[in-house]
Amino acid sequence: MARAVWLVFLVLLIAVVVAIPFGIRQRYEGFSVPSASMVPTLLPGDYILVDKSVRDPARGDLIVFVDAADATQLLVKRVVGLGGEDVHLAGRQVFVDCAPATSGCQALAEPYADFTDKPVAPDKSGMWHVPAGRFFVMADNRNAGEDSRHYGTVRWQQITGRPFLIYWSSDPAGGIRWSRVGSRIH
Fold this sequence. Notes:
2 helices; alpha+beta; about 15% helix; Umud Fragment, subunit A
């Protein structure tokens, strides 16, 4: 009898040990950052952990989503506009649901926005309406990255999850950026 109990225990233990990685993979997944579009928040060579259970982002959240033009590519951008809002871009400033010249209209506070790189595309100032169930996303590195100004809004169904941790980071020469390893992503 005792032998049967130990056998059941061993089978259950093996089942749990095998199931845990699959359960974790269902919720979390690792991705690498190949480009500079999200500098300074994410650097090329960062490896990020994404929580795939978070699919209702708020303004300011980073999201990972499937590129509508190439379903094999995943992109990381920051949510700036939510469904039903009007996003106005005027130079380096972003306004939501108010025209830039309107009294009382305030630009979004975006301490993460970076404009140090040379622009890769012409200025895309203007107004975009964000349809329901969609998100207007922008690269943190506004001059080097393409985003909703270039390819339109992101559908909710395209969202894979929200990155929350840099679990590894290496520079172009192969050195480890220890100061970034374990950093939370905001």
